[in-house]
């Protein structure tokens, strides 16, 4: 009875009443829950603020009213975005009774993208861009050149600091926005120039004829770059393939318009084994694809198979080319511009407009067929690659079936080197991929047997960047990983079947260990990318040093942390009572040390592997792990100055 009384008293104390209902006025909701509007308050969310303002300028460009956008990072990490568009309207808003520019910056879901004639095509569906940036900024100032005058207004943490006023005359039009992110909201206020440059280069490619100038005033020397591509997505594909051996110099370009929606596709084949296809809708990168990507893939497969049959490339009775066969080595950009885009979710990562699929299939079906007919020599070269891919796929199928006949892919038959955990809920399970049998043995002893599984790896595995999928299935070092995870690979990969939701690479802190980490990350990126996209891949951070003085001891992961910890304690390396032990490898630690420093969730440090930008990641893997030697040499030359310990 005492337990029941305690429960009743707790329930009374936690009663839910009218006083618990809060009404957040104006932009208070944005400041209270910023993650709902910009994803996070980390560096990613910080950069998102700039994208929101620049996207508004891009919408002006799409409407034909703007061709130049200037973005400046100031020394205090404030940002100025200037365009030569029509300028935000400054007249009194009929519903709100205040200047329209003030409505745009202080009212959620207010903008020219919900109807009327303001914007025929726009990426902004929710009308929260400028108002959210304002709400999350220490201050925001806007200058509007319109109607022959320069209009000015300032806001502080989302609230109007002064009435709209005229501060000068103007013979041009446009909007200039200057804002400084709020230190009370964001974890960091430091902008990354390269991150912004990459995003704006993408925007310039997608909007031919629009000039974007980015300038960084921080540091001793100003950095600036002008991004302008008259070739649009044709140049985008050339840029993505600039380090590849391409099968044809000029990308294939297809465009068309149906029912007011504009479709354009640029595609080019190279001699690699991977596909890199990026889709956009109204300049928004649709990471999860959608109807436009489905339409492209369907049309590509149909046109290629129809052509192959009509030209006896595929004999009667032979199997059709699979979608993955015709996409091997393909780099493509799909960009659609439409009036009313239907995105799935606030993140806008998947396009849902069903009609777009049929538009692309129709346009591609007609124009790609004509291109192949008009370029028979190129068509022959592309089909040779497709047929080679088909043979490799068939070899992979046979290898997979052979493996299944041996029960290797049966979840009840796991690799002999896998020391599994007892927990069956994947969300609670961790798989450590451990370099070497010695370290694997220590990890097995030092682990938590309930939730932590150990798979010892030996030697260096296959570099999948230089191999097709049939080689992966027959590789004795990669197959145990595939079997342990239980979700298959490539187009057959099913993230729902993963047996572990934390896959932790644990390798030595030397050159060989770094190479193994890179080989594994290449494998996961190429054949299990959703594993990374879902945040399931991690890198262990084993300590490099063990420091002992008297009864005190601690571990540090690098020289910088060692110096910091010694200084904090007032210790000197020259102290005779100080013992600094350097671990050359995981195997030098006993099971208790390895468990405590590297495996125990309460005391370890692990790094999550994330995928900020698929195109950039693809380029890095291609440079470092691909066939070409020159990109690796360039990388070494550029980064050699940062090397402290070549082999630790």
Tell me, what is the CATH class of the largest domain?
A: Alpha Beta
**CATH architecture designation of the largest domain:** 2-Layer Sandwich
Assign the CATH superfamily of the largest domain.
Answer: Histidine kinase-like ATPase, C-terminal domain
Tell me the fraction of residues in β-strands, as a range. Answer: 15-25%
Distance between the termini: 63 Å
Q: SS-based structural class? A: alpha+beta
Radius of gyration: 29 Å
| Number of structural domains | 4
Shape field: globular
Mean pLDDT: 86
What's the main sheet like?
9 strands, mixed
Stretches where pLDDT falls below 50 for ≥5 residues?
A: 1-24, 405-412
What are the key terms here?
4 domains, single chain, 6-stranded mixed beta sheet, 21 helices, globular, 648 residues, Ribosomal Protein S5, domain 2, alpha+beta, disordered N terminus, Rossmann fold, 37% helix, Heat Shock Protein 90, 9-stranded mixed beta sheet
């Amino acid at each position: 009875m005492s337990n029941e009384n305690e429960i009743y008293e707790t329930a009374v104390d936690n009663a839910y009443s009218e006083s618990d209902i809060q009404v957040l006025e104006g932009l208070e909701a944005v400041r209270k829950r910023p993650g709902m509007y910009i994803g996070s308050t980390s560096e990613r969310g910080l950069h998102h603020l700039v994208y929101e303002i620049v996207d508004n300028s891009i919408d002006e460009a799409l409407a034909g009213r703007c061709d130049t956008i200037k973005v400046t990072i100031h020394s205090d990490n404030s940002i100025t975005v200037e365009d030569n568009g029509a300028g935000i309207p400054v007249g009194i808003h009929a519903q709100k009774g205040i200047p329209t520019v003030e409505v745009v910056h202080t009212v959620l879901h207010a903008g020219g993208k919900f109807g009327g004639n303001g914007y025929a095509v726009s990426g902004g569906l929710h009308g929260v861009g400028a108002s959210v940036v304002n709400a999350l900024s220490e201050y925001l100032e806007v200058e509007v050149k319109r109607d022959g005058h320069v209009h000015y207004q300032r806001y502080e943490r989302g609230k109007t600091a002064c009435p709209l006023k005229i501060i000068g005359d103007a013979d041009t039009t446009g909007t200039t926005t200057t804002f400084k992110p709020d230190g009370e909201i964001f974890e960091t206020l430091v902008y990354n120039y390269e991150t912004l440059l990459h995003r704006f280069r993408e925007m310039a490619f997608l909007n031919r004829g629009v000039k974007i100038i980015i300038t960084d005033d921080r540091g001793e020397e100003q950095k600036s770059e002008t991004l302008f591509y008259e070739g649009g997505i044709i140049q985008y594909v050339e840029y993505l393939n600039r380090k590849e051996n391409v099968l044809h110099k000029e990308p294939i370009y297809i465009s068309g318009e149906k029912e007011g929606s504009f479709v354009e596709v640029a595609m080019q084949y190279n001699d690699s084994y991977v596909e890199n296809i990026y889709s956009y809708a109204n300049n928004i990168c649709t990471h999860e694809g959608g109807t436009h990507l489905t339409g492209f893939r369907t049309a590509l497969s149909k046109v290629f198979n129809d052509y192959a049959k009509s030209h006896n490339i595929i004999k009667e009775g032979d199997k059709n080319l699979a979608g993955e066969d015709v996409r091997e080595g393909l780099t493509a950009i799909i960009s659609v511009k439409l009036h009313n885009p239907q995105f799935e979710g606030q993140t806008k990562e998947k396009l849902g407009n069903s009609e777009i699929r049929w538009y692309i299939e129709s346009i591609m079906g007609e124009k790609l067929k004509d291109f192949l007919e008009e370029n028979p020599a190129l068509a022959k070269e592309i089909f040779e690659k497709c047929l080679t891919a088909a043979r490799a796929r068939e070899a992979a199928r046979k290898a997979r079936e052979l493996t299944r006949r041996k029960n290797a892919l049966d979840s009840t038959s796991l690799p002999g080197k896998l020391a599994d955990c007892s927990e069956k809920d994947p969300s609670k399970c961790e798989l450590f991929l451990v370099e070497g049998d010695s370290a694997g043995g220590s990890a097995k002893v030092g682990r938590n047997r309930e939730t932590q599984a150990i798979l010892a790896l030996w030697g260096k595995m296959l570099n999948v960047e230089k191999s097709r999928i049939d080689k992966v299935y027959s590789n004795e070092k990669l197959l145990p990983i595939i079997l342990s995870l239980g979700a298959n690979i490539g187009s057959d990969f099913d993230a729902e079947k993963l047996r572990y939701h934390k896959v932790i690479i644990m390798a030595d802190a030397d050159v060989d260990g770094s190479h193994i980490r890179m080989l594994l990350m290449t494998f996961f990126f190429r054949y299990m990318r959703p594993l990374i996209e879902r945040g399931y891949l991690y890198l262990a951070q084993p300590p490099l040093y063990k420091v002992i003085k008297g009864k005190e001891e601690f571990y540090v992961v690098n020289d910088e942390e060692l110096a910091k910890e010694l200084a904090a304690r007032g210790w000197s390396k020259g102290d005779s009572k100080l013992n600094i032990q350097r671990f050359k490898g995981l195997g030098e630690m006993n099971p208790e040390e390895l468990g405590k420093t590297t495996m125990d969730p309460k005391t370890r440090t692990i790094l999550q592997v994330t995928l900020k930008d698929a195109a950039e990641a693809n380029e890095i893997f291609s440079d470092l792990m691909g066939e070409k030697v020159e990109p690796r040499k360039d990388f070494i030359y550029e980064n050699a100055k940062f090397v402290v310990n070549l082999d630790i």
